[in-house]
């Protein structure tokens, strides 16, 4: 027999019991002759029948309550069975309601924990986003902010009016318009300070009002570096054209003079031709440097793999520059540790950067002083280096005894066309691209570059190169 079916007999028995006072009175009236049995007996039957129907319907409602609770607690198999016209609960419904209520409680507790965990992890994601983020509610009050926003504004923005720390009228207009018109908009914000920062501000209307009253989301994306890069590109084009235009104008000028007034002046012709050759060579050097810079930049993402005997490369560069050094009564001296392991690199590019460094040391060194080139194995790269050279590496230093470089210039020396003294650099045949090339080659080698200089004493530029076979990490540049 089904455990949950109250039999018809049991149902009628229970109904008779419930109706016993009424049926007892009716029976007593029949027995005393006060009531007609023909009407009283059907009335008793009807009372018991109706009561049975009421009890059954009441149990049906209870079964529905339990069914709903079970659906909510995912006891769906049992629930389905009951929904498909399954058996009605027995009279131990109280016990069953209690069980279902407990299951419901357990389910809600589980769901609450899942939701709480989800909210926590969403909060973590929000907090760890690199861009500052603010949620805005009615009256432009900040309802929530992430860590990046707290750092940017140096305070807790939540609970404050946005106007108290972001006063740009453009941005405030944007926020107001998003709060009133329900459209998403964006604006640019320049953050004042010793170093101005530029942000792209995006205000996005939320699809529904948040539980904390948030209506819109405000994200601030720092575009300072991007703008600087754009500016650098524009400056580069302007500088490169200027550097090329100067010798070109000089060539055109001298050609015109030679074709005109100095046509029959052999002395002037000789002097002009020498200048023209010099200008043409300057243009050639500039074009070569520009081309190698763009080539190196294109390859920068793929580090070289070959083993390079650095001392051998330095020796061949020294031979090449010996005459130039002797012209200034200078000498290039290479001092190296014995039996050095090979560095990892591109021989041609390393030769080019050592040439640039030694050439600068000759150009800017004091006549009669030596250019010292040291090669040594060191335990690790320079101190401020992130990860890159925290392993034994090769250090190549080029030291001169020139005038040195002022501290304020050091961070900018590796920028293209940056020169401490433009006229002097040009007079010496410099293009202003030598150290920029060094920086990019070093970056491609996942190495490091340091520039130390003392005015009046001289300059030492060092290149740190990973050893062949050592583990690779990131590229770094100490000069920046
Ligand atoms: P340039 O072709 O002008 O030498 P670089 O890029 O090689 O260009 O160097 C940039 C600037 O750095 C130079 O114009 C010069 O002012 C300065 N500089 C580079 N090396 C030295 C050095 N060894 N001593 C003094 N100044 C130097």
Provide keyphrases for this structure.
disordered C terminus, 12 strands, 4 domains, 5-stranded antiparallel sheet, 13 helices, Helix Hairpins, 480 residues, binds adenosine-5'-diphosphate, alpha+beta, 51% helix, Beta-Lactamase, single chain, 5-stranded mixed sheet
CATH topology call of the largest domain: Heat Shock Protein 90
Radius of gyration: 45 Å
The amount of beta strand, in percent, is: 15-25%
Biggest pleated sheet:
5 strands, antiparallel
**Global mean pLDDT:** 87
What small molecules are bound in this structure? adenosine-5'-diphosphate
pLDDT below 50 for ≥5 consecutive residues: which ranges? 473-480
Description:
By secondary structure, the protein is an alpha+beta fold. It folds into 4 domains: about 10-75, no CATH class; about 130-220, Beta-Lactamase; about 225-300, Helix Hairpins; about 305-480, Histidine kinase-like ATPase, C-terminal domain (Heat Shock Protein 90, 2-Layer Sandwich). Helix content is about 50%, strand content about 15%. The chain has 13 helices and 12 strands. The chain has helices spanning about 10-20, 20-30, 35-70, 75-85, 95-130, 145-155, 170-180, 225-260, 265-300, 310-325, 345-365, 420-425, 435-445, and strands at about 135, 140-145, 185-190, 195-205, 215-220, 305-310, 330-335, 345, 370-380, 395-400, 450-455, 460-465. The protein has a 5-stranded antiparallel sheet with strand order 2-1-5-4-3, sandwiched between helices. The chain has a 5-stranded mixed sheet with strand order 7-9-10-12-11, covered by helices on one side. The chain has a two-stranded antiparallel sheet with strand order 6-8. Helix 9 (about 265-300) packs parallel to helix 13. The longest helix has about 35 residues, at about 35-70. About 25% of the residues are buried. The structure holds adenosine-5'-diphosphate. Adenosine-5'-diphosphate (ADP) binds near residues 360, 400, 405, 418 and 431.
């Amino acid at each position: 027999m089904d455990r949950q079916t109250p039999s018809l007999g049991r149902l009628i028995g229970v109904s008779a019991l419930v109706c016993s006072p009424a049926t007892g009175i009716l029976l007593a009236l029949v027995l005393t002759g006060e009531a007609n049995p023909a009407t009283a007996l059907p009335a008793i039957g009807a009372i018991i029948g109706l009561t049975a129907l009421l009890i059954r319907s009441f149990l049906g409602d209870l079964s529905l309550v339990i069914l709903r609770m079970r659906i909510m607690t995912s006891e769906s198999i049992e629930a389905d069975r009951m929904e498909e016209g399954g058996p009605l609960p027995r009279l131990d419904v109280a016990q069953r309601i209690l069980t279902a209520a407990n299951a419901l409680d357990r389910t809600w507790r589980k769901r609450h924990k899942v939701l709480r965990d989800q909210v926590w992890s969403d909060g973590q994601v929000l907090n760890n986003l690199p861009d500052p983020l603010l949620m805005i509610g009615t009256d432009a009050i900040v309802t929530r902010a992430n860590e990046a926003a707290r750092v940017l504004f140096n305070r807790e923005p939540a609970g404050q009016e946005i106007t108290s720390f972001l006063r740009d009228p453009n941005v405030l207009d944007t926020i107001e318009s998003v709060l009133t018109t329900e459209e998403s908009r964006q604006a640019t914000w320049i953050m004042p300070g010793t170093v101005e920062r530029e942000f792209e501000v995006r205000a996005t209307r939320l699809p529904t009002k948040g539980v904390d009253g948030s209506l819109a989301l405000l994200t601030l994306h720092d575009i300072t570096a991007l703008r600087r890069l754009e500016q650098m590109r524009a400056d580069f084009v302007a500088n490169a054209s200027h550097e090329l235009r100067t010798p070109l104008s000089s060539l055109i000028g001298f050609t015109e003079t030679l074709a005109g007034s100095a046509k029959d002046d052999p002395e002037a012709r000789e002097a002009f031709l020498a200048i023209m050759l010099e200008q043409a060579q300057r243009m050639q050097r500039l074009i070569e440097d520009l081309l190698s810079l763009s080539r190196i930049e294109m390859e920068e993402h793929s580090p070289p793999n070959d083993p390079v005997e650095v001392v051998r490369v330095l020796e061949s560069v020294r031979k090449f520059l010996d005459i130039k050094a002797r012209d200034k009564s200078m000498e290039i001296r290479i001092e190296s540790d014995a039996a050095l392991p090979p560095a990892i690199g591109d021989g041609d590019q390393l030769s080019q950067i050592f040439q640039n460094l030694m050439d600068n040391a000759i150009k800017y060194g004091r006549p009669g002083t030596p250019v010292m080139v040291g090669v040594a194995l060191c335990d690790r790269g320079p101190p401020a280096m992130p990860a890159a050279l925290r392993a034994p590496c090769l250090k190549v230093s080029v030291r001169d005894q020139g005038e040195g470089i002022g501290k304020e210039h050091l961070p900018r020396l590796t920028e293209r066309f940056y020169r401490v003294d433009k006229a002097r650099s040009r007079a010496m045949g410099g293009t202003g691209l030598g150290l920029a090339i060094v920086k990019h080659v070093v970056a491609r080698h996942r190495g490091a570059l340091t520039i130390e200089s003392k005015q009046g004493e001289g300059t030492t530029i060092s290149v740190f190169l990973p050893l062949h076979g050592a583990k690779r990490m990131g590229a770094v540049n100490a000069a920046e």
